[in-house]
Amino acid sequence: MSLGKHLFTKSTLNRGIAIPGLLFILGVTLISSFFPDLASSMLGRIQDWIFTNLNWVYVWSVTIFVFFLFFLIVSKYGSIVLGDSDSKPEYSFFSWISMLFAAGMGIGLMYFSVAEPVAHYADTAFAGHSEIRRAKDAQLYTFFHWGVHAWAIYGVVGLALAYFTYRYKLPLSLRSCFYPILKNRINGRAGDAIDTFALCSTFFGITTTLGFGVVQLNAGLVRIGLLADNSFRYQILLVIIIMAVSILSATSGVGKGIKFLSQFNIIAAIVLMLFVLIVGPTVFLLGSFSEGIGYYLNEFFSLTFDTHAYEPATQPWFFRWTILYWAWWISWAPYVGLFIAQISRGRTIREFVGAVLIVPTVFNFMWMTVFGNTATWLYRTSPDNQLGAMINKVEDLLFVVLDYFPFSGISSVLVIIVIFIFFVTSADSGILVMNSIATNNAAKSPKWQLIFWGALLGLMALVLLNAGGLQSLQTMTLITALPFSIIMLLFCYSLFKGLAIDDYYYNRQFSPSTHSWSGDLWKERLKRILSFKTQEGVNHFMRETVRPAFDELAAEFNQRGITATIQDMEVPLDMSLTIKHETIDDFTYGVRNEAKMISDVLVNEDNVPGAAENETFIPKTYFGDKRQGYNVEYFTKNEIIADILKQYERFLELSSEEKNEIFLDVRLRRKL
Questions:
Q1: In sequence order, what are the residues at sequence separation of 6 or more whose Cβ sits closer than 8 angstroms to the Cβ of residue 558?
Q2: How many domains is the chain built from?
C-alpha cells in the first residue's frame, strides 16, 4: 500500500468533500500560476459584468442579513440557547470576542486602516466636494464597509451553523443549515457539494490574504532595517515562519494556541491604537469619532440601500469599493462563520448577535478613526504630502503615518508584531476550519492532517505570489460570492423555520384534558409547602414515592409489550424511567435530588417555620429532550404516574406532527 493511500485510509477526511475540493483547488491554482494574465483578464471581465449588472443582488442580500439579525435580537427567539437549554459558554466573553475578532477582521484592519480613508479622500469621483466633506465621507464610507453590514454577513453563517450544530446535534458543516429544507438529503451529494464549496472558498480566501499580507509584512521589516529588500526569497522565509507557528498553534487546539494569541494581539492592538491617539491629533480624533458615529447613524439607511443608480459618475467607485467589499466578506463567510460557530456554544441568540454585530463594529470604528482620520489629517495639513505621493503603495502607508510621530521605530515594530500574530490567528483558525469541513466535523483528526492543510496553504500562496496569480485567485473568490449570497439567504429562511419550530416545541403546553388537579390532599400539600427539605429527606421521598411510581408504571408498559427501563444513581440520588423507541428518540422522565439556595430574607422570616439554613433540596424532574424540569415534592405516587403519562402523551402528540421531525428523527443523528 502506498504512503498516500495509507494516510488517506487512516485519516478522517471525507472523500466526497476532500477529493473534489483538492482537485478544484489545485486546478484553479495551476491555471492562475501558469496563465496569470489570461486568467486575470477573463475572470476580471466576468467580475466586472457581475458587479455592473448584478450589484443590486449584493446590496439586497446584505441588507436582508442586517435586518434579519436585528429582528432576532428583539424577537422572542433571542433567548434561545445555542445548545441544550442548560448549556454554558465554553470561553469567557473576552476570549470569545478576541478569537472571533481576530479571525474575522484582524489583518485587514492593519492593511486598510490608513489606505482606505486616504483612497476615498483622494478619489477623483469626489473631486467636486469640499475638503471637509471629502474627509468626513472618507470616514463614513470606511465605517460603512467595516461596520454592522460586514459583521452581519459573518453573523448569519455563524448563527445558522451554531444553531443547527449545538441545538440539534447535527455536524458543524454548512450542509446542516439546510436540514429544514433538504432533511435527510443533506447526507448525499447535495451536502457534499455545499461543503466542497465552503472548503474551496475558505482555502482561496486565506491563500490570497496570506499572499498579499506577506508583502505588507515584508515592507515593514524593510523599513525597520531587519530585511534588505522586498525580494521573493524573504517572502518565502516569512511564509514558512508564519505557517510553522500557525500549524503549531492549530495542533495545540483552540483553547490554547488560538485563544492565547488572539487575546495577546487584541491587547497589543489596543496599545498601538492608544499610542497613536495620544501622540497624534488627540482632540481632533476624539471629536471626529463622535461626529463620525452620528454621521454614520444618520446616513445608515441611505447607505444600506444605495446603488448609485442616479450617480453614474460615482458607480465605478461604488463597484470598486462597496460591492467588492460585500463580495469579499461573503466569500470569507464560510470560514469566519464556521470558526465563530465553533467557539460560540452556550451563548443565547441575543447575546451572539449583539456581540457579533456591535462589539467588533465599535472597535473597528475606533480603530479606523484613530488611524484613518490621522492619515487624512496629515494628508490635508502636512506640507510634504508624503502620503499623497505613496498612495499606490498600500503596504507602506501605515508605516509612513507612524514616521510622522515620535518613537516611530518602536511603533513600527509593534505594528509588525500585530500583523504577524493576526496572520497566525487567521491561518491557524483557517487550518482548523478547513479540516473540520473536509472531515464533515470529525470528532478527532490526526495531527498530520492539520500539518497538511497548513503546508498546502503556504505552498499555494508562494506559488501564486511568485507567478503573479494572486489577483486571479482573488477575483475567482469574489465571483463565487454571488451564488453564495443566495445560499446565505436560504440560510436565513432555514434558520427562521427552525426557530419557529423550536419555539413551538419547547413552549407547547399540556392538552386541556391533563390539567385537572384534585384538592383532596390539600392539608398534606400545605405541610410540605411549609417544610424545607434536607438531602436525606428528599432521598427518602424519592425512594418511597418516586421509585414505586416508576416501578408500577414500567411494569405496566412491559406487560403491554413496550420496553421500559429504570436507571438509578446514588450520589446524588437520581432515577429515571426510559421508554424505548426505534425510529424516534427514547422518552425519558427523570427525577434528581437537587440543591436549592434560600435567600437570607426567608431564613430570617419567623413566620416561615423550618427555614433554618440557606440550602434546601428538592426532587426536580428532567427530560430526554433537555427541557427545563420542575419540582415534584408535593406529588403523591399516583400523581407522579399521572405526570409521567401527561409528559408521554405530549411526547407522542408532538412526534405525530411532521414538522417536529428535526427534533425526533433519531436515525438521522445515529447516521451522523
A1: 564
A2: 2
